[in-house]
Amino acid sequence: MKQVSQAARDEASPADPVGPHEHIAPAPRVSVQAFCETVETAAAIQAAGEDRRLAKTHLRVQMGGLTAAVEAYQSSPTPNVIILESESRGEDILAGLDRLAEVCDAGTRVVIIGRMNDVALYRELVRRGVSDYLIQPVGVLQVVRAVCGLYSAPDAKPVGRIIAVVGAKGGVGASTIAHNIAFSIARDLMLDAVVTDLDLAFGTAGLDFNQDPPQGVAEAVFSPERLDNAFVDRLLAKCTDHLSLMAAPATLERVYDFGADAFDAIFDSLRATMPCVVVDVPHQWTGWTKQTLISADDILIVAAPDLANLRNTKNLYDLLKAARPNDRRPHYCLNQVGVPKRPEVKAADFAKALEQQAVAVIPFEPQVFGAAANNGQMIAEIAANHRIAEMFRQLAQRLTARAEQKKRRPGLLVPLMPLIEKLLPRQA
Q1: Would you say the pTM of this structure is higher than 0.85?
Q2: Which of 112, 165, 192, 353 places its Cα 20 to 30 Å from the Cα of 359?
Q3: Cα–Cα dist 348/40, whole Å
Q4: Are 277 and 267 in contact (CB under 8 A)?
Q5: Whole domain around residue 106: which residue ranges?
Q6: How many domains does the chain contain in total?
């Protein structure tokens, strides 16, 4: 197998990261083998294999194109997906596919990368069972879209956007912000959403929503053999018409040590049934918290305006940006800004260090936050017109890439309909 140089892989990095409205659903655990003819294409495919959405796939990149693929599968089974690059003319590509079909197992999906932009060739490839045709040069995201698209219905809306909210330091109010954002997603955007509290020992989601469900995320993570969509659905507590809660037990009877992929199956089940999943990630650094953040569709880091928070935010921001090169950058917001007599690091200093503006600067309002917490309510429930409630609405729109659903006002003729019906002649 020919190795691809790091320089070539860097050149293959896409110039167009995921747009604000694009959502590429992750691929399942499948095997993918690529046979390339150019180093540039091999580099792009190798880089795509490191994308979080292909994290579960087993990817192998080789050189040699169609000829090497036919030879390789003479004596070995074919994988779930074969990616073939060919710089040949259409007739030669079709002839090579005919030879491959003789050794290809049923159910294997084939993606062709060619240099010809020919509709007739594309139709003939589709007729022969090819799943997709990409035109050279290909970028990393094109490969990711192609592989992930094989396992999602083309006419189905992507579901299961996961938004991870984490504090740069303990006590900065990340859980409160996560819960209020989820509430706004459900109430103002009218999207079905679920809050998943991963702070199993000290989680506050149950208190904040005035819920005490007998089951929650602990039952799911400690019973991986029972995990399916129906089981996960039974663990959800209903908060509002559009908002559900997967609460933490908030007890110390167990030690909550998990492997890095302990929550993957839970997130997969939630993705399949919920358009939006807001994950309240505790402030700790373990394999599973790191994996949760890296695998999320969007990340919000919550920080207080002091030096330790600036350092931690910078460290988190840089690591996540490097680990997710094909995704949007993490967002961050400042919370508890304006505490009387407390020296603070200015928002401009955060923006300079991170080279990005905060998506929100939330002022210190102990009365409104304290009243909501003590009543088990959200800010929008006790003060719908408060400026902080509006901030949460804007954060919900930003993180979901959706505009607020406008409530339809009754038409002018609606109040007059009973009178109009009386005036109209009745049907015989």
Answers
A1: no
A2: 192
A3: 40
A4: yes
A5: 26-149
A6: 2
